[in-house]
Q: What sequence folds into this?
């Protein structure tokens, strides 16, 4: 990619990286003001970026929004931006260091002017950061929009977004690169590791870590799946060996979660996000409150009392979540009634159709669960928005917690009920299988194929429109159409749902592993298709997302670890309840329970010790990190020595 | 304290801060070399400190070691040293910032030349740091001692120590200050909070945190003690109410440990150790290995393979510890035999003497436990030394772990046996009381009174000697004698034993709280005397220790938390075993156990959630910390902006 020369050439004089879409009723003076602020040099408080209006599309109808703007930047601007956002790049000695323009030539792969040094995803991230930190000076409101109030230091883009003037900001896809990536990722037929570095190049670290985790998780389950198959085939009811399987499973889960930390650290180090310092977090766009002074920055910004937020959380959100859990319990009881009814019908007069009827309650229940999850999700988002969190990260954590608890309950409550109240292992196995398979199929359909089908219809419509006007020979769309097409694509809402799915699958594998060892096999199969469908939807269904620098999978690590702790409890109880184990303690059930509890506590203690012993950061990265730290300490010392000796010289 | 003017005036021309004692057979050339290295200016690799030999004592006999050296420094040197070690001091705006000589006048309490700005403890810490970082240049060995090998970059002091040439380095007491401190601390009669800031001034942060924790712990136990007394007086056998007490106890333990974190953060912040960066850790003096290059620093230093160390740990130390635990179990069984024998004698023919006989096995056992702990301690130190850890911190952690496990086992194994194998609650209560009281009395004697008595004898001897020669009117000793006296005092070995004692006391309170609510009362009483005896021994028995910067109580926080987790398990089982609770489940014992286990799991989950919800850093300190971070980010940004604008000007 060469800067200043467009890939298309017809409409822009620079490489467009990011698109801004303003509402079609935006006042002209607001547009002019915004563009000038974006173009202004940095020393006068501008962003010093290149920006241009997108010409009318060839399918130009009056319905089209004319207010689409392409944003780009010169290479020098991008490099100084890279320094500002604190990008880490590989240094000539192989270590990762914070990029600085002053010694740019000492970085690996920095050649000539430095084009192709930054990936397009990085450039887009830099532009987003520059736009986000574009701050109001002495404007009191957006010109032409008196209701969009501004105050000194307020992020302009955030205010425009919260007032609905700015509809969306999104980075553009890179057709050639995307083609190459999608080939390497899922189109070539032979099985191979995913091109994580390429994914990171194109989508950023957050995405790449998700796919890395998905791959790691799949491979980690293979041993379980391989052991599970013979268990399934030969020893369906032999609990003695299930004990061995369950213990192995529990230890294995702990080990893989610990090892993943090391893996993710290695990845994050090689991608330069491990040591990167977080910038100061700005309030999220939707945050509102009374204007005041932030005690940390001293800047004017809305303040909202923490006590009020706590009250909203504990007096409204918490009871609501509990109510939903109760509702979900109620639905579950209805499911068991239906199940009982179907069974009684089948028992009265068993035919092929009543045999199928037996499965219908489970299928209906699985569908209802999916619907409830969806509805609850909207409620959770609304509530968390209403709690008015200042930071995006805090908003996300509260949302994740709400959704996680409900989903966990929804998915596993019936299984817990069957296992521990009804104590019916055959039904448990059957329900587990039905739930697992139904939810997998539903997920794949809802997640990838449905959006793909919608997107394809849209694509075709656009193509037809264009071809009607121009007799186009090649299948490539002109830039204006391409941008409009991408603007209409669905927005990728982050890795939340993908992780949630993995989390629930992990639950199916670990919670009841000693009853249904085949779960691991099903999950491995699901994950393999998941890689393909996720890759596919990232490349073809969604707008390109902005890359998010991430050093680990964050709160999900905790969630998975919590699940593995719960798994110890459930598996131990299941084993304790099995008739084969009970046979060892023919006289006293008390002895059996005491032993079960003791073993469970032992396993839990072992888990904690294990997670303590296995270091989170691999040795070689530890050494590299401490070397960097040591060097910076030494440099500081040398600087001070120099200053001191200069001082003494001055005195002499 | 005014620099350059000695408090005594007779022997030194500067305020002596630290004493170096070399072996009496040290070669003169080695001494001359060492002194010149200490005096050399920093730019030629010296420490730029003041050093002088101590004159012969007035009690001068030929047995006295002549090689005692007093070390001091000029104020300028101390200030630049404060910057080097990264001391945090209060800034004029009330926040804590890293001290720099460049803007020294902006720090609070910096007046004139800055004397009295640094406390004596800080000065001594700085001098220790400067001595420790005095490195060999091209010497291959210590002059006159060819066996004391050196290589470029090796710390000279550490080599001298490991070769036995340097016997000890210790800071001097400050008579006046000490008098004032000891008055405020324990001599005035009215009860009050400890003068933590003064303690920190005199002994440094590590000590002050210990005393802070001791005080906090005592106050935190007061509510438990107050609830415990009526339980003891009125409801000796009423388990229903014990359940309430135990649950309160468990929640309370969690809460106080969490709140302590906030407390210790506040203290560490106000003392400037919270944000202080740790310097790169040097290998400990006793560490040996083949010379090689450290992968982090690139310096030549001994290397020792990590695998070898792991082998030593898992193949020798671990089995040894297990063997000791087995031995301890064996001793315990003998104790129970003795106990049984005494009981049978008493039952046969109960007299006053047989009544006393009943207590004898417990007392003997308590004494044997103390002796075993002592012996094991030496073995653990030897083994950990032999494991050859590179870092002092890693050595300490391994030592703490070994000693902790054994002490825990030794102290509580018999109680566990009585509680869960014999299920004899009366005996449990009795043993608990005996153990607690015996170990408290033993501890106080061994820890404070015995050393004090020894030290007093030494003091008197020295006084008598001096008075024989000089007809001294005042009771004050001249400097030379004072130094020699302090050199002979016992060395304070750190807070390890003090924390260990608190840890075991915490165990007595929390593990079996529902059986013996009076434990909290006893521990509170013990802690009050502990404060006094610890304060007393710090002021009068031991050499002054070097101050250790510490931001928290380190591994002990973890140990206390582990104890509180174990306490949940023991208390729940004790309650489950009580006849009153059993009466609620007359039909099935299974139901009872299941309920007990369920409640236990619930409590554990609640504990974890609680420790998750309570933030570790208080809000106002959080704000101060983020403000500092924000300011440094902003400063960096501004600096870069300036550079950029200068660059553009240069181009124009």
A:
């Amino acid at each position: 990619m060469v800067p200043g020369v467009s890939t298309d050439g017809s409409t822009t004089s620079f490489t467009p990286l990011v698109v801004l879409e303003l509402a079609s009723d935006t006042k002209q003076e607001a547009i002019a003001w915004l563009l000038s602020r974006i173009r202004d040099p940095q020393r006068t408080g501008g962003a010093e970026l290149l920006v241009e209006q997108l010409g009318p599309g060839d399918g130009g109808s009056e319905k089209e929004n004319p207010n689409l703007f392409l944003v780009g930047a010169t290479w020098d601007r991008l490099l100084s931006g890279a320094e500002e956002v604190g990008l880490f790049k590989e240094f000539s000695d192989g270590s990762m260091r914070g990029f600085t323009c002053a010694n740019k030539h000492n970085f690996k792969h920095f050649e000539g002017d430095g084009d192709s040094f930054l990936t397009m995803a990085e450039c887009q991230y830099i532009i987003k950061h520059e736009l986000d930190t574009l701050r109001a000076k002495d404007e009191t409101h957006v010109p032409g929009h008196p209701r969009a109030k501004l105050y000194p230091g307020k992020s302009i883009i955030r205010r425009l977004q919260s007032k609905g003037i700015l509809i969306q900001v999104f980075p553009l896809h890179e057709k050639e690169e995307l083609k190459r990536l999608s080939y390497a990722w899922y189109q070539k037929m032979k099985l191979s590791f995913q091109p994580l570095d390429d994914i990171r190049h194109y989508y950023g670290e957050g995405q790449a870590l998700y796919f890395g985790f998905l791959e790691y998780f799949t491979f980690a389950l293979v041993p379980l799946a391989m052991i599970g198959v013979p268990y399934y085939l030969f020893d369906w009811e032999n609990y003695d060996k299930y004990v061995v399987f369950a213990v192995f499973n529990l230890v294995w889960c702990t080990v893989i979660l610990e090892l993943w930390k090391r893996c993710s650290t290695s990845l994050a180090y090689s991608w330069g996000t491990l040591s990167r310092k977080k910038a100061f977090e700005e309030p999220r766009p939707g945050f509102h409150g009374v204007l005041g002074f932030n005690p940390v920055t001293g800047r004017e910004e809305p303040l909202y009392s923490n006590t009020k937020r706590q009250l909203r959380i504990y007096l409204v959100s918490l009871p609501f979540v509990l109510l939903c859990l109760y509702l979900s319990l109620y639905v579950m009881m209805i499911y068991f009634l239906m199940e009982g009814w179907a069974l009684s019908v089948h028992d009265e007069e068993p035919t092929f159709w009543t045999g199928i009827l037996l499965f219908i309650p489970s299928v209906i229940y699985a569908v209802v669960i999916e619907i409830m999850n969806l509805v609850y999700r909207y409620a959770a988002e609304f509530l968390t928005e209403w709690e008015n969190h200042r930071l995006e990260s805090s908003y996300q954590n509260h949302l994740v917690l709400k959704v996680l608890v409900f989903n966990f309950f929804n998915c596993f409550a019936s299984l817990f009920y069957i296992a521990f109240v009804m104590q019916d292992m055959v039904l448990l196995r059957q329900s587990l299988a039905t739930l697992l398979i139904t939810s997998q199929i539903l997920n794949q359909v809802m997640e990838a194929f449905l959006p793909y089908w919608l997107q394809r219809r849209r694509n075709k419509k656009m193509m037809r429109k264009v071809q009607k006007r121009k007799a186009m020979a090649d299948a490539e769309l002109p830039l204006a159409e391409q941008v409009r097409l991408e603007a209409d694509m669905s927005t990728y809402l982050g890795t939340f749902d993908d992780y949630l799915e993995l989390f629930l699958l992990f639950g199916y594998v670990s919670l009841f592993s000693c009853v249904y060892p085949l779960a691991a096999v099903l999950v491995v199969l699901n994950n393999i298709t998941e890689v393909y469908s996720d890759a596919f939807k990232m490349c073809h269904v969604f707008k390109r997302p902005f890359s998010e620098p991430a050093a680990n999978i964050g709160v999900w690590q905790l969630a998975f670890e919590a699940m593995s702790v719960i798994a110890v409890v459930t598996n131990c109880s299941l084993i304790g309840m099995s008739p084969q184990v009970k046979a060892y303690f023919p006289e006293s059930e008390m002895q059996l329970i005491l032993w079960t509890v003791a073993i469970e506590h032992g396993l839990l203690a072992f888990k904690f010790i294990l997670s303590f012993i296995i270091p989170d950061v691999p040795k070689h990265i530890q050494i590299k990190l401490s070397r960097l730290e040591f060097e910076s300490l030494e440099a500081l010392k040398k600087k001070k020595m120099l200053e001191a000796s200069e001082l003494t010289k001055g005195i002499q």
